Queue: 2 jobs
Job 1
Amino acid sequence: MLEVEAKPALNALFIDGNSLTLEQVLAVACKNMPVSLSVVGKANLLRSRRLVEKIVEDGLTVYGVTTGFGKFSEVTVSREECNELQKNIIMSHAGGVGRPLPREAVRAMMLLRANSLAKGYSGVRLEVVQLLLDMLNGGIHPVVPCQGSVGASGDLVPLSHIALAMIGLGEAEYQGRIMPAEEALKQAHLKPVVLQAKEGLALINGTQYMSALGCLAVAQASKLAKGACIAAAMTFEALEGIPAAYSPLIHDVRPHAGQRTCARAMRQLLEGSDLLEREKHARVQDAYTLRCIPQVYGASLDAINHVRGVLETEINSATDNPLVFPDAGCVISGGNFHGQPLALALDYLALAVSELGSMAERRVERLVNPALNGQLPPFLTRHGGLNSGLMILQYVTAALASENKVLSHPASVDSIPTSANQEDHVSMGSIAARKVGSVLENVSWVVAAEFLAAAQALDFAQHTPGLGSRIAHALVREVVPHWDGDRILYQDLHRVHELLQSGGLVERVEQEIGPLW
C-alpha cells in the first residue's frame, strides 16, 4: 500500500474532541506522535461522567447503562450488575475474523476513539481515556481482526478488540511481539481498567474503524493522484500530445476546482517542453486519455477532497449511543453511530481512485501498441519478435483495472439487518473502508507500470520534454535501466513501485517545479 506522509513531531498532540486534523491523525498513526488529553478534554470527561453516576445512583432506566443492548434494550439490569454488563459486552462483541489490521490503522483507531470520548458526550471516566492514550503512547497495539463490522451501531466488533486489551483480555502487539494483552500491560507498567456503568458501550459504539481506514486511504489517494499526474505527463510527452488541451481558456469556462488544478499541474509539468513551441502537430486532437486528463483526474481530485471533508467532520464528532448531555441534564438515544456518511464517501473514494488507474491502463496500451503509439517501436523494444518488450505490462494493468471495477461496486447499497431486526438498516461502511485500500494498492501498481512504460518510451523521444517529465524519467532510470532486450519484468516493476510508494518520486519532482497542488 502507498505510504502516507506524516512529519514527526517533538511535542505532544493535545486532544479535546473538536480540533483534530487529518495531518495529526497521520502523525500519530505513522510517526508515533505522543498524545495527551487537553485541559478542555479532561473537563468534558469529568462533567459528563457526573451525570452518568447520578443516573446509576438514582436507579433510572437508560439504554446501555441500566439495560441490555440492541434487542435486549427492554431488559433492565440491576445497579449491582452494571459493571458486569460492561465487561460482558466487550467479551461477547469481540468476535472479529480475518487478518489483523496493520499497526498504523490500529493506532489511528485508538486516537480517534479517545478524541471522540474527549468531546464529553459519552460519560466515561477520565482514567478510561487515559489508559487508551497510555497504551497508544507506550506502543501497546491490540490485535484487531479486519472483518466483522457492519458499519452501524458503531464498528462494534473491531472496537471491542481494542477495549478487550484495555481490560487485560485478548492479545496485543508490544515491542514487536504478539502476546496476551495482560502481559503487554504488565511489561509497560500499566494496569487493566475495570469498566463501570456505560463505559463498555462507550468504547465500542463509534465509527472509528471506518474513520481510521478512511483517513489513511484519503491521504494515500491524495499522494497517488500526484504520482498519476506525473506519469500521465511523461506519457503525454512520449506520445507527443497537443498541449493546447490544457489551456486555462478551456478550463476557466468549466471551472470545477479539481479540473482547473489538474490542468495547471499538467502545464507545470510540461513547462520547458519542445511540444509547447510547435505551431502544428501531426493530429488535430488527442485521444481522451491524453486530452481529458484534467477533466477526469480533476473529478477524482474533487472527490478525494470531498471525502477528506467528510472525514474531518467525522473525526471530531460524538458517535456514541446514548449521548450524555450534561448541560441539559439528559441522556438521549440516537443514531450517530450509523456509518452511512462514511460508507457513501468511501465508496465514492474507491470510484475516484479506480478512475486514476483506468486512464493509466489505457495510456500504457497506447504506449505499447504500434497502431496507437506513433513512431515508437512495437511494445517499446527495438528487436521485436526475439523480444516481447513491455507487452505483458499492459496485461498486468488490464487485470488490475478490471479487478478494481469489481471492487468499486458500492458496499453502501447493501444492508443486512442485525440484532433481531432492531438494527434493521446498516451501512456496510466497514466494507467500503476495507476495499478502498485494495483499490489504492491496485492503482499504485498501474501507475508504477505507466512510469516504467513511459520512461522506456521517452528514451526514444526526438524532442526535449518538460522539466517535470525529465526529472521523473531520470528518477526511474536510477532504479531501472533501459530495456535493450527482455529481462525479468516483475523485478523492474517492483523497483519502480517502491520508488512511487516511498514518496520520493513525487517529492523530488515538486522540489524542482513546485507543488502540483
Job 2
Amino acid sequence: MTDVIVAGGGPTGMMLGAELTLAGVDVTVVERRPSAELVGSRAGGFHARTIEVLDQRGIAGRFLEAGKTYQGAAAGSAMFDVSDFPTRHPYTLGLWQNHIERILAEWVDELGVKVERGRQVTGFVQDADGVDVRLADGATVRASYLVGADGGRSVVRKAAGIDFPGSEATQTKLIAEVEVGEQPPVGVRTDESGIHGLQVMEDGRTFRVITTEHQMGPATEPTLDDLRAALHRVFGTDFGVHSPTWISRFSDATRQAASYREGRVLLAGDAAHIHYPAGGQGIGLGVQDAVNLGWKLAQVVKGVSPESLLDTYRAERHPATARALKQTMVMGLLQQQDARHVAVNDLMDEFVAMDEPRRHVAGLLSGLDVHYDLGDGHPLLGRRMPDLDLETPDGPVRVFELLHAARPVLLDLGTPGGVDLGPWADRVRLVVAESSGPWELPVIGEVTPPSGVLIRPDGHVAWVGGGMGAAGGGMEAVGGGTEAVGGGTEAVGGGTEAVGGGTDAGLHDSLTRWCGPA
C-alpha cells in the first residue's frame, strides 16, 4: 500500500513525485520505459514562469547551466520581448527534453523518490478507500490515489472514462533525428503547406528534421520511407537520410480533459491536455500542473485538508491551460504561409511593435500572467509572488528561497510580532521581513506594497494584508469592508490576529482553506 501512484515518469510525473516527496507523502512513480535515458531530443524549452517554478525549488540553475537562454518568445514570425518584465528570468530557455529529463531524474533520485522503470499501468479499480492499480506484469498495487501523467494517449484517462473534447487535427508533421548522405540546408523553409526545418544536433553528425506532410498522416508510427517522401516533396531530395535515432508524427489537434479528477484518480500534463507543440509550452504546462496539484494532494492524503481541496486543482489549472492551448492554436495557424496567413502575420508584426499588445501576448507566452481566481482584492491575489529581495532577522533572503521546502509561507511585512499563527504554526512558515524595492507585476505594473502575504507552496498568493489595488489607489484590505477569499465574501475586522496588528478574518479563512482547518 502506498499513498500515491503516479503513472508516467516524464517531466510531469517526476515533478509531481518530487512535490509529493517534499510534502512527506509516500509516492511511487511508475514508468514504462526501462531506462531514465530518453532516446532523442524530443520536445524542449522552458518559458519564464516555469523557470521561476524550478527556482522556487532551488534547481533552476541546473537547467540554466545545461541550456541556452533567448531574449523573447516566438509566435508565428513575431518575437515577443520579455526582457523588461519584472522577473529574475526574463527569457526563454532552450534545452532539449532528454536533458530536462536527465536533470529531473537526478533531482528526484537525490530526494529519494521511488521510481519503478520498465513497469506500465494498464488499468485500475477504485473504491471509497483507495485504488487497485493493475500493471502490465500482472501485479496489482494498492494506493490511496492514482495520478495519470502518462501522456496524450493516457491509459489512466481512458480507464477513468474522462471525456477529452477539443479540435481535430488539420495537419500532421514528421519529426526525426537522422544521419544524412548529403549536407542539407540548415534553417527553416515555409510554403503553403506549412513549416519545414533542419537543424544540426550537438554531435555535429545527426540532424533534427521537422517537415509538414502534404496529406494527413495515419495514426501509426511513421517509417523512414515516410520521412524520405516528405522531404523529397519539399526539397526535391531526401538528403540520403539514414540511421534514424527516432521518428515520430504529431498533429495540431488540441484537446483538454473535461475533468481533471474522477474520484481518487487525477490527471496531469499531456494526459489532461494536448496541443500543437509550437512555442514550447507543453513541458512547462505539465510542470505547473504538478506544482499546483502536489501540495494539495499531499494535504488531503495526510488528512490536513478535506478532499474538496482537490477540486481547486481543476478550477485553477483548466482555465489557465485553456488560454495557453488557444495560443498554440493561433501559432499553428500563423506558421502556414498561404497569402491569407501571411497577411495575418504581417498584421501581427505591426501589433507587436506596440507596447501594450506586446506585453499582453508576452505575458501569456511566458506564463507570468497566470491568475487563479481567488476572489476580488489586491492585484497580487491569485498571482505568482514576485521573487523580492527581503531583509529578515536572519539576514537577506529571496522570496523563492523560502519556497524550497514546498511549504506555505506567511510574510509579515508590518509590525514584527503582529501575527500569531496559532494552530497553523506547524504547517506555515512565518517570516518577519522588510522589502524596500518596488512591488511590480508583469503586464499590470507596480502595485501597492502589502503589509503581509500568504504564499502557497506553488508560489501563488492566497491572502494579502494592507493596501489594495494598483500603486496610488484602490480599496483597503484590512480594517473594514469585505474581502473575497477562495470564491466567497468574508468580513474583515474580526477573527485571527492580522499582519501588522488589528484583526483580519480573511487571513483566518485563507489559512483554513489552503492550509487545512484549525
